[in-house]
Amino acid sequence: MHWLTVWQFDPSVWVGCALALVGYRWLPGAHRGRQLHLWVAGVLVLFVALESAIDVVGDNYLFTLHMAQHLMLSMVAPPLMVLGLPPQTIDALLQGRARRLLRLLVSPLFAGPAYVAVLVGWHWPPLFDFALTHPLAHVMQHLSFIAVGLLFWWGTLVHRPGERWALSGLGEVVYLTVGALPAVVVGLTVALLPHPVYLYYLHRAPALGMSALADQRVGGILMFVFDSVVMLGAAGGKLWRTLPADGAERVRLRAHL
Predict the structure, then answer these.
(1) Whole-number Cα distances in Å, 68 to 87, 130, 169
(2) pTM of the predicted model, to two decimals?
(3) Which of 21, 57, 77, 254 falls 20 to 30 Å from 41 in CA-CA distance?
(4) Containing domain of residue 154, as a range?
């Protein structure tokens, strides 16, 4: 379809992504390698989410693509960018002037609830529709998704022994499971509602051959499935890496008895 090839030009997005790519070389400890590739991948995900047909069609016709965009901004780009940070950069941030604020923001007790509150709050129908008709609010919505995504994923991807925010293996399992709450609160709820609640798309989705209710249900299912798979999959991976070590220790103990 023609709309799939539509791209737009938003100077702020182009400049922001260019600065993120070029500026990486000046981060402490930055060098070519896996971390650079992860950083570039994260920035490219942001660029595609904000400049491609995902944004154009999501903003004007389909709730489903708008939901896909939000998942890219909060759950795909942030972990890639966190993983792309050089260890020296992380250490510099944790030792810099804003270290107390940073430690507070990445604390699981703040980052987890903030992540859930922002994703659930912005998908409240009146606020969601308001953002779509007010450009500044829409920009703030996107920036908040990226911000809480970075904070949330820092809590489980950055490991610094001795830090207050450092979680145990089982703590990370619980943390990631909490991260799946938006999938249920928003995704599953929206998918099961018997009528459209995002009025902005009521007469827009049909222009692309999809009823507003069907569009809303597909978008809700997309969030529920994607969010659940990512968060619970990551939690399962953490649990798997935690339990074998305990099992091996029990085997060693039995051998000495």
Answers:
(1) 31, 19, 30
(2) 0.89
(3) 57
(4) 2-256
